Amino acid sequence: MGISQMGLLRSSCSALCHGPRAASVLRPSAVLTRQISMDTQNLVARLNSSGLLRSQCLIGGKWTEAYDGKTIPVHNPATGDVLVNVPCMGGQETNDAISVAYEAFLSWSKLTAAERSKRLRKWYDLLMANKEELGQIITLEQGKPLKEAIGEVNYGAAFIEFSAEEAKRIYGDIIPSPLADRRLLVLKQPVGVVGAITPWNFPLAMITRKVGPALACGCTVVIKPSELTPLTALAAAELALQAGIPPGAVNVVFGNAPEIGDALLASRQVRKITFTGSTAVGKKLMAGAAQTVKKVSLELGGNAPCIIFDDADLEVAVRGALGTKFRNSGQTCVCANRILVQEGIYEKFAIAFSQAVQSMQVGEGFTEGVVQGPLINEAAVQKVESFVKDAVSKGAKVLLGGKRHSLGMTFYEPTVIGDIKNEMLIARNEVFGPVAPLLRFKTEEEAIRIANDTDAGLAAYVFTENVQRMWRVSEALEYGLVGVNEGLVSTEVAPFGGVKESGLGREGSKYGMDEFLEMKYVCLGNMSSS
Ligand code: NAP
């Protein structure tokens, strides 16, 4: 299948699903030899022999095909190679995954926190011991440069390590009673079975950020990774099994996303939906969760402003803006989507920033020195193209790039566009690609007004050397995360999440644990000592 077909069919699983596997024992290597280039073939063969390249879903500790045998291809976005065919599951398999997760919950939630902690720690150790292989799988199916992919493994694994530690600190409370014969307690208990739906841009970290705290609290999970990047999820699940996380505690299903989503939403056994992805799908899930009044946390899209004031350190600002804009080729929810530059520094910044962008090497993620990989699929490139076209037609000026890369496929030139207005499509929506739009502003008030003029509220960045301004602007920005003189702010120890339409709840840090806990008030009566 060509890359263009891939992109256009991306949201239609039924169109992508193939008929039953020729033989249910068809192994990845058998598929691969016929369909992929030699380099990829060698790498996949190595990964295959490591046991981490799984090509079946995981239900109740068993590697499982779709019940009707249908499959879906996983592609390398840099080459278009079909890496492997994986099951295309739907509602039936999801219901079974929920049932086994519920069974497993009854015992996993009864383990001591110390025991859960030990197994999570073991999972962390295994993720770190296999970080090269996991990084290679991420690069193969997602496209990001290998160094960045290994960085994701470090970042993703850190959520498991943190959760292992935090498992032992899920404290309740004792409240002084207003009545002498009563004792008032607050217990923190796991919410139950969790449905965790995740996107393709961080195929490991978006899973561990949810599953780590869920397991630490005593919950069990049904993970639904993106059909575009299921292999990383399967490799992580294989390591979870090896770490002694019991069968059924971690399940992975994917394929027909709406059908799987509907099964998770309809089930009374699923007590929590945790979702990372687009705002449109997040809203649907939130509405669907109302059927059974589930707990919901949502990590949705952003429209991050990156404000560069006249008094910023130019070098720090260029480095910070570059980091936040071009990580993962611009495909992150916290990527700077609008770079607001004060008029006094605008020209200098535009020149220095464009020079820095020009020096970035584009290419396949396994090539030494490459820092910009391909976009995830053809639909993503078409979206970027349409936003650039709209901006240029309304008076914006391309300072660098502005078109598909000569490498072809889904590579796009790292791009800088000046004279952007906040009304343009590119400033109203996530571009999710390697395009940096520059907007000019005059005053601090104007910058804050433009920055907040959006329904999104995930990340924002400020570059200034003025300490009072750092405080003033950070407080005025309607965002869940603010980076001051820093473009990379994500860490497992700090709360990550958005306000407004960027989501509900927080992931990471001690606050992220609460998303998987219920509070129970217990009143002990007849407690007078006489
Ligand atoms: P998406 O289209 O919303 O997909 C996210 C997940 O939802 C995928 O697993 C997808 O499955 C699944 N899905 C789609 N329709 C569904 C339905 N009706 N029911 C249940 N599940 C459904 O988002 P994406 O394009 O993959 O990811 C990019 C978006 O994620 C961007 O907006 C980005 O900002 C956001 N994001 C947010 C954060 C954050 O922390 N706030 C972090 C990363 C990304 P399939 O892929 O199999 O269709």
From TrEMBL:
Pfam family, one: Aldedh
InterPro entries: Ald_DH/histidinol_DH, Ald_DH_C, Ald_DH_CS_CYS, Ald_DH_CS_GLU, Ald_DH_N, Aldehyde_DH_dom, Aldehyde_DH_Superfamily, Succ_semiAld_DH
Name of protein: Succinate-semialdehyde dehydrogenase
CDD domains to which the protein is assigned, alphabetical: ALDH_F5_SSADH_GabD
Keyword NADP: no
Catalytic activity: succinate semialdehyde + NAD(+) + H2O = succinate + NADH + 2 H(+)
Subcellular location: Mitochondrion
The entry's keywords: Mitochondrion, NAD, Oxidoreductase
Subunit structure: Homotetramer.
GO molecular function terms noted in the UniProt entry: succinate-semialdehyde dehydrogenase (NAD+) activity
Source species taxonomy: Eukaryota, Viridiplantae, Streptophyta, Embryophyta, Tracheophyta
Record-annotated active site: E299
The enzyme's E.C. designation: 1.2.1.24
Entry's family note: Belongs to the aldehyde dehydrogenase family.
GO biological process annotation, one example: gamma-aminobutyric acid catabolic process
Major location (coarse): mitochondrion
Signal peptide as annotated in the record: none
Boundaries of every Aldehyde dehydrogenase domain copy: 63-522
NCBIfam families: SSADH (TIGR01780)
Pathway(s) it belongs to: Amino-acid degradation; 4-aminobutanoate degradation
One GO location term (cellular component): mitochondrion
